[in-house]
Amino acid sequence: MPITTITVIGGSGFVGRHLCQALVARGYRVRVPTRNRERAKALSLLPTVELTEADVHDPHALQAAIAGSDAVVNLVGVLHDGRGRSGFDGAHVELARTVVTACVASGVRRLLHMSALAAATDAPSAYLRSKGEAERIVRESGLDWTIFRPSVIFGPDDRFLNLFAGLARLMPVLVLASPHAKFQPVYVGDVAEAFVRALDERASVGHSFDLAGPRRYSLRELVAWTCRATGRPRPIIGLNRPLSYCQALAMEWLPVKLMTRDNLRSMAVDNVSDQPYPFGIRPQALEAVAPSWLSEDHPRGAYDRMRSRAGR
User: Fold this and answer.
1) pLDDT tens-digit profile of 87-121?
2) How many structural domains are present in the chain?
3) If both were cysteines, with which of 10, 96, 127, 298 could 134 make a disulfide (CB 3.0 to 4.6 Å apart)?
4) For residues 117 and 273, is the Cβ–Cβ distance under 8 A?
5) For residues 49 and 20, is the Cβ–Cβ distance under 8 A?
6) How many whole angstroms separate alpha carbon 244 and alpha carbon 260?
7) Is the pLDDT of residue 22 over 50?
């Protein structure tokens, strides 16, 4: 039976918005359950997207939201631990269990699940362990599952490159924890494309795929490149392990967490992969696409700057 209707859990998030656009462009009907329609209102402009008010952590509400779907995509994830639903256990483990239960109860066989590169139940960080436990739940579900494990994802509205670009605008010198941590950044459009193609590839059922870009970088290299791309090269002071720990501990007290000790533990594992990118997709290089929104000399950068001045 062909897949025509897809429910995207986490559809209003960074990756979700790009995935919904890609699905609509391919002619799919897309449902996005959300507790906050205002946050997801931009998706309502897409012609075949239906926003439904639902608490995805409520098993009965989620079951009703996905009923009649041909496939479900779970993109929900958090980078910093919190209490209840906003913590690693709630957002990753318990929600994965709720999604699987709702799919089984609704008769939805196809499940695409977003995990993370280096996720494992014995990983050094709580984040990676929770992602690993969620993978175990999906693998043992009996559903037609596919798991994706991306490295750090970049794009116009990411919270990674744009974070460092913002710091470069504010600070003359950047002090960096774990400067030697390894990443293989992947473009959000390529991540969305992998999800879309998996829907048509029956051979992807029962498999996990790493999603990583064409080049590996140290964190120092990524930050230095981002600063140059914004036109603000900055000196970078790399911290050793004890000082990195102290910086992460101090940052945990900030109202908005930029880094935590658990993030530091995650970075102890290289966030890279030797697997080829799936489905014959050629992942785009950071240097080829990111300047279009990072550089203020680029029309996109000028547009973003005007929006910022207008308070938008």
Assistant:
1) 999 999 999 999 999 999 999 999 999 999 999 99
2) 1
3) 96
4) yes
5) yes
6) 10
7) yes
